[in-house]
Amino acid sequence: MPGPSQTVSALRALISARFPERGRRSHGSVCADVGPVDDALGGGLPAGRLTELVSAAPSSGGQTVLAGLLAATQAARQRVALVDGADGFAPEAVPGDMLRHLVWVRCREPEQAFAAADILVRDGNYAALVIDLRGCAERVLRRTPSSVWYRLQRAAEAGSAAVLVQTTFPLVPAVPWRLVLRGPLSLGDAGLPREGVAARLAVRTERGQDRAPEEMTA
After folding, report:
1. Does residue 32 sit within a domain?
2. Is 99 inside any structural domain?
3. CATH number, domain at 75?
4. Is residue 116 in some structural domain?
5. Which of 8, 14, 93, 151 has its CA 20 to 30 A from that of 118?
6. d(Cα 7, Cα 9) in Å, to the nearest integer?
7. Alpha-carbon distance 88 to 102, whole Å?
8. 115 vs 158: CA distance, rounded Å
9. CA dihedral 183, 188, 190, 195 (to 10 degrees)
10. Which of 129, 165, 153 has its CA nearest to residue 52?
């Protein structure tokens, strides 16, 4: 089995081969094509920043937000990276043509997910980076050192990708914006097209304090 250094090298090589050009976009926002989410953030996911999306219930809309982001970035001819922390993404649930601009990194534990995210957030090829930690063991996630989040936040600020962290409970410390999807969707919503489901999402916005973790300050 390859070691961590070999895995990282292989990931770098894969990204370079698939997307050879590099360029930095100006800071702005990335539309998620989900009205309640875009409205809550003033137009879309903020570039160069972390946004946490909490969806406790399996049917509360987290997958709808991801599908909307894929549709919006495809229309805008932008690229997306998905770090799938528990290997839970179901590509068959999304139209195949919406996957061509996606790099999907399948992980089996949070440590792998954070290592992959650290590489991708610095890459410069992506309009959005999604770190999906739903399905990861809560006890493991709660042991994540705050320095890991601080490093990711600073890397995001130095780049131009909008970073969306999907969780099932509030997790990211000092995140500038946390969106909470409230309650499961109704059975009647299941038959609606994606746009209809997206419009019905109930979103609560929590504004965090953008600061370094205590152990990282002097």
Report:
1. yes
2. yes
3. 3.40.50.300
4. yes
5. 93
6. 5
7. 15
8. 17
9. -90
10. 165
